[in-house]
Amino acid sequence: MPADPFLSVVIPCLNEENRLGSTLEKVAAFLRTKEYRWQVLIVDDGSTDRTVDVPARYMTAEECVVLKNDGNRGKGYSVRHGVLEAAGEFVLISDADLSTPIQEWDRFLPHLEAGYDVVIGSRSLPDSNVVKRQAWYRQGMGRAFNKIIRFLVIDDFVDTQCGFKAFRRSAGAPLFKKMRIDHFCFDVEMLFLAKKAGLKVLELPVEWHNSEDSRVRILQDSSKMLKDAIRIRINDLLGRYR
How far is CA 86 from the centre of its chain? Predict the structure, then answer.
């Protein structure tokens, strides 16, 4: 793959040996229909299974780069690692379970080419197509978290946590260099910094399928996300994002 791809797809992974193959098969089939150059970056977050061996069965070394964190550092750290290694003009972040189908990228690209710096997927807009919903208690947790985020950090978005986000690398990479949140609240930090920088951000409805194998733990991660939301505000007040 030539050195300057048009699109980089960043997929953070932790113990994804069982479902990563299906994901990469779908991603490869989709991207190989494109006329532009692309790359996939798999970021392994200290997996204890054989996640790192899966990509070679579905993509060539030129198509897919495997990055390894030095231990289990968190989803935010993993995404940041991948984004800062990406070479594409545009960068797409996708969850390893493809809860949002890769085909949704085709709906994002025209908006990025029209001048938006960041486009994020939403499961909560009127036209969002939630094919398989989360359990009621996870939906409740998501609504509560969103209210907290709108109160504490940023109130511009209906859904900050959908794992499907894209941006111009020239606009997004400087944000990721400043980011400090290593876990699930990194999305909020990214959007907070994007708005602070005056970037044009668009929230688009997407198709979404709940995965039963969610890595978000109700009690532990909810507490951690709340603390990280407060940290974002403190970091800003202390000038750590300058």
Answer: 13
